[in-house]
Amino acid sequence: MDLGNADTWGAAIYFWIVPTVFGDAIFPPIPSEMLVITGGVLSAEGRANLFLVGLVAAVASWLGDLVVFQLFKRRLSHVLDRWKWGRAFHAGVHSAIAHAGRSSTYGAIIGVRFIPGGRLATSAAAGIADVSTRAFSLCAALGGFLWAFWSAALGYFTGSATQLPFWASSLIGVGVGLLIGAVIGVIVTRRRGNRSAIDDPAEELDI
């Protein structure tokens, strides 16, 4: 695959989005936002469909969130400790919740995903707090929809405004997205503190 060829990306972008956005729910360093923004940029160039990019990303986001939520809701997270990668994931959950905040309110489930590690943190915290599956599913679906179409739209408008090669427009879009996410992260951290809910599984978070 020629990564510098926009036509090649346009044909494959939908297939890359699904595993990347799904995997980001479990392993936040996966650059899912960059891929969705790239899909938006390609849409501005007529090489992808903006609505389809957003829809595919939203569905993948929702499914990934549900997997993490059910893992912690059913108290299956201890199974991960049998493997080295599982222990690393478990430690990552602690770190994500510490940075993104411990709230599992409906607003947090929807909104905290816009900051790095936010999806993992809120999905795990909601599972630990025993939020109802129906409520979490609806909030995760709405949050995934908003995040996916925001990212795709950011890429679309960046590509339309800059008229640069698609990869350059994608990097600019990612930079803008990270800046906005950092601002949200500062606000969230100041409001919620940074104590991890995993340290006290019996604690019921306000919903």
Automatic annotation (TrEMBL):
Family: Belongs to the DedA family.
Keyword Repressor: no
Keywords recorded for this protein, A-Z: Cell membrane, Membrane, Transmembrane, Transmembrane helix
Pfam families: VTT_dom (PF09335)
InterPro entries in the cross-refs: DedA_domain, VTT_dom
Compartment list: Cell membrane
Presence of the UniProt keyword Coiled coil in the record: no
Transmembrane intervals: 12-30, 50-72, 135-158, 164-188
VTT domain residues: 30-156
GO cellular component, as recorded: plasma membrane
Recorded topology in the membrane: Multi-pass membrane protein
Name by which UniProt lists this protein: DedA family protein
